[in-house]
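Box 3.1 — From sequence to structure: 4Fe-4S ferredoxin-type domain-containing protein
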Amino acid sequence: MSIPNYIPQGQKPAAKGQQLKANSQQLKADSKLHPQKPKGKWHNRRVVFSVVVLSILFITPFVKIGGQPILLLNVLERKFIIFGLFIGPQDYWLFGVMMLTFMVMIVLFTVVFGRLWCGWACPQTVFMEMVFRKIEYAIEGDAGKQKLLDKAPWTADKLFKKALKYSIFLAVSFVIANLLLAYIVGVDELSRIVHEPLEDHIPLFSGIVAFTAIFYFNFAWLREKACTVVCPYGRLQSVLIDRNTITVAYDHERGEMRGKLHKNEIRTNGDCIDCFQCVAVCPTGIDIRNGNQMECVNCTACIDACDAIMEKIDFKKGLIRYTSENEIERKSGKSFGPRVWRYAAVLLLLCGGLVGMIATRSDTQTSFLRTPGSRYIENKDNTVSNLYTFKIFNKTNRTITPTIRLNAPEGTLLFAGSPDLTMQPAGMAEGTVFVTIPKTSLPNRKTVIKMSVYQGDTFLEDFETTFMAPQD
Ligand code: SF4
Ligand code: SF4
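Predicted structure (token representation):
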């Protein structure tokens, strides 16, 4: 690689301010960014990691536990399966606590590692940098060729390249839309949509078309602006990261005063030779030397670019590297501030609570209440009856046929009609029932009675309700 902007001896480099101004003007003039193709150790690592991320993304919808998908995010029917745990409309509190735990986890992770997620695992970055950008480089060439092609008149060659690129973009967007739908409705439902007549699945097919258009717009036009303008996570950075956060950072202590490298000079400036290679490869078009910026997605491209320059001019690598502001300034080892320990404590509490909630969660949720306006009935056989209305919610993703049992005190249940209590997944059964208990078991006006829900001999849930009786 040649060193761009290499200034021969005797020639004066442009003043720093002028150079930065020119650079930012050039970036503004290019409404579409043309980052140079990244290459180097960190990029290779990201390629491997992206293959893992993409494999997980595409394989997960097909993985099932006990016939159920391991992950389903059916926002349309408000049903979620997270690592095999079914969360229906009755478990929103559980879903809420899960989301809260996830958010605290993200906050903690961001405080410690900055935007590591953005650069390495976020599907937006993985698809943009490792799929769409690679297709673009393969068809149109590196940044310089892309700029020339954009400026060139519409020849047959340009038309062919642009048509080919955008057709492939559209096809990949269609695949991603199907992938998203597989997470929402499951692969079985998606397969039905594909194999059955289109007119039977107009709403879902419209969803695929709409998501294809959204993904195409995102990856073909919006691109890095999705990270720098749209994504709320990026905007949170300024409040989350601190001087101990490990991010991709420029070592200004070592790099400044930056200045061009001249042949045979005895260098008095810092190690940054102002070659702008770190800017040229940046997919969000920023200059990492201006410090931590909201637009930086920690993609590591500038680390590789700068390391290549350092190697070429025989300087120590790592002028741009994963480090923290404190590490640069104090040359101290990595340390965590008190914020990290506080977030870790909150996360630990939430995880503990979540595990407890999941462990004690029942398969059904029953509401069993005395029918409003009804009184107790005194029977001739020295028993008392109360009339109840009940609702049983199925909190699982399987069919349940429940039975209700009176545990204490002893008594009988007489259902109105012969209700079929069979509940579909996430379904509900309801009815009315007379509970009859011998007077001798009812010493008080109000007695708490204990009941259970079973499926066959399998216990599902315990609950209590009150029983009214005359007071002698
Ligand atoms: S500054 Fe560096 S790490 Fe940040 S987005 Fe640009 S190239 Fe990637
Ligand atoms: S930080 Fe590195 S890549 Fe960027 S201008 Fe300085 S020497 Fe060049």
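Summary of the box: The longest strand covers residues 383-394.
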